[in-house]
Amino acid sequence: TDMLHKGLVDISSLADKTVSLKQLRVVLFSEEFARKGQMKEMVEYLFKDADVRSSVYVAVVKESTEEMLKMEYPDKENTSSYINNLFHPRQYTFFSPFTTIHEFVYDETDPLRDSIAPYVELKDEVIHIEGLAMFSNGKMETIFNKQEAKIIQILRGREKLSVFALTLDDEGKEKVALEFVKSKAKVKAEELESPKVIFNMKFEGTLSEYEGDKDLANKKDVEKLEEEVSKNIEKDVRNLLEKCQELSIEPIGMFESLRMRYKGDWPTGLTEELLAKAEFEINVKTKLTSVGALK
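The structure assignment produced for this chain is given below.
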């Protein structure tokens, strides 16, 4: 169908019951549909529909959405419940970029940041959340991976993370996993002419797993580990920001402090101009609250 409402009428005329959107929970869009900008139009339509709740989740599907919906999942009660439960935040999926139609429309109407949505793929009859679909001017532009998605969530103000895993060296010999992580990020931009954006980030969590040669019974080694974790997070944040700068995508809203001091309406295109010439200062501090018995 070309129009959603017409499609509902056509289906209802063939069924013995009326089709309604009142129990809608999750809406899946194909990547092709999202890249053409049609996803934005459909989400805005659903947002204005009084029968649809603003807490409905949206996601972008690699390749065929129809295949994902028609697939039989033998170990699941039914497809509807499986997809509905998958997109609800739980302890070990809390880092995932779950997006409701309200949040998508809010970002689309915000002149300071671009919208995001989970990017999912069907692999071996299981739906995988592979990363983050990034939008610009209503069209999907690129995909960020899971680690980049976590950082974006933190910079957007997410204060609790279930698990945060890091590899601290290039050889992959030293690894840490933090659990019950509390995060706090403050973003401040200075000057319109030559914008400098300052990121102050604090992490506090329990060290649940560690691979490496440090003696965690030694206080100095623990302090050294905290410094290495901080430097690693700082590197990841900088790489993400430089990638956003290169792609001219702003998912964070880092120029909010400048907009608060700006007189009049925020001009179209000013966010992109500021992002292109912005310099970044990143300060990260990590506190390991427990390094007791590890897994």
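Interim note for the steering committee: The chain has a mean pLDDT of 89. The longest strand covers residues 175-190.
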